[in-house]
Amino acid sequence: MRAARAFVFAALVCSCTHDYDALTGRSGTGGGAGASQGGAAGVGGMGGSDEPRCDGGAVPVCPTGGFRCTPCDSAGRGGTGNPAGRGGAAGGSAGTGGTGNTAGTGGAGNAAGRGGAGNVAGTGGVGNAAGRGGAGNVAGTGGAGNTAGAGGTGGSTPLCPSGQIMCTGGACIPASGDGTIAHCGGCNACPTGATACVNGTCGCSVAGQMFCGTACVDVNTSNTHCGGCNRPCASNSSCVNGTCMPTNACGAVFATTSAGFVTAPAAGGKCWHGHAYAGGDPGSAITPANFSSCGTPCVLRMSGTVGPSTQANNFAGVAFLGFNVGQDVGSSANTTITPTGTSLTVTFTATTGSQPLRVALLTPSTSWCYQITGPSPVTIPYTMFNTACWDPATGTAYSKQPFDTIQMIVPGGPASTPINVTLVSLKEN
Q1: Which residues of the chain fall short of a pLDDT of 70?
Q2: What is the DSSP letter of 177?
Q3: Would you state the pLDDT for residue 207?
Q4: Is-contact 362 352, C-beta < 8 A?
Q5: Which of 100, 259, 310, 424 has a CA that sits 20 to 30 A from residue 74's CA?
């Protein structure tokens, strides 16, 4: 009886030892973590087979008169893995973690198959946890979305070295400016007309000039800014060495304005005054013709070539440098003056080759000259002037007749001669 029961029990059992993995299903493999894109979808768990595997997998055949084993119920299929969440874009929002797989349901009477493992959530911002995978029969919980990464902190404002300030455009300069008209005394540029920045103040680069309004002017000769900005001279006066003086008045010394206007002290407090000029006969080439743009300081100099003076051209060759003595500023009229002193003192420099240098007193119709034989300066008594200074015995001596201009003259020779003559000063004694 015991043997019969044992057989029946064995028939029931029938060595149907089921493969547990087949009944439960294999776990799905989670998707890889997202980088810039989500990882591959997780593979769902493998479902159980329709038939039980007995004694190593063969379908059981029970002994004669026994029971066939009840077919093993099919294991539930594992859920399909969800696509992995996308990783956060570079510098942007973090990726969303994948949703966990739904767990598979096991066959009746058997343990449920395991759900696929949850996908690993895409890695987003630093410090965010990955999404959880599905647990057992409970649906896997998807990874929580990553919090967006914080934006980068803006760069700090660049700083200048200690003691410097930043000007428009980003230039760093000393707080007191960089000594240029672009940053004079700080970041501000000088106004139009300024040509230099001097000790943090907009000014002029030429000595003797001042910055007045919108221009650099010579305050020694400017009739509008005489001796300083906005100090105009009256209509009957001119600016001489920074002082407004009547046009018939002189300073203590010989002077020439930047426009070539000469003032020469004369005896008895009188003043000889007029515009300077230079020139020669048609066969000579002398510059300049006038000194209207002489500049500061104005140097009364003629240079060039004096043409030949021969019998063939009626001894025409001559070069001259002079100034009027009875002319007001801005006027073309020139009147004569009558000297009251005894002599003239002339200071000069000259290169005339083999040709002589002369000083002459002239009217439109007559001239009296003196031929210089000594070095500069030279003092010439009026009695030494003669209408034929190259041969005084044939001429007439000067006796203080009125004249209207004074010249330094270089007569021509047998051939053209290079010359260079400067009138430094002239004074009546």
Answers
A1: 1-158, 235-236, 246-249
A2: E
A3: 83
A4: no
A5: 100
**Integer CA distances (angstroms), 401 to 365, 389, 393, 409, in order:** 12, 16, 20, 20
* Residue matched to tokens 């003797």: 208
**99: closest CA among 148, 137, 145, 45?**
145
How open is the CA angle 182-184-188, to the nearest 5 degrees?
Answer: 65
Element (DSSP H or E) covering residue 5: helix 2-13
Residue 155 belongs to a domain: no
Identify the pLDDT of residue 305.
Answer: 97
Tokens matching residue 355: 């040709």
User: Within 13 Å, how many C-alpha atoms sit on residue 54's CB side?
Assistant: 16
Q: Render pLDDT for 311-354 as a digit per residue (tens, 0 to 9).
A: 999 999 999 999 999 998 878 899 999 999 999 999 999 999 99
Domain end (from 145, 180, 202): 145
Domain boundary among 87, 113, 145: 145
Q: Count the neighbouring beta carbons within 10 Å of the beta carbon of residue 374.
A: 7
Tokens 């500061």 locate to 296
- What domain range is 265 assigned to? 252-428
Q: Are residues 383 and 287 in the same domain?
A: yes
Q: Domain check: are 114 and 74 in the same one?
A: yes
Same domain, 270 and 413: yes
Burial class (CB in 10 A: 0-12, 13-18, 19+), 214: exposed
Q: Tokens representing 81?
A: 């893995």
Q: Is the CB of residue 362 less than 8 Å from the CB of residue 320?
A: no
User: Quick one: CA dihedral 172, 177, 178, 184, positive or negative?
Assistant: positive
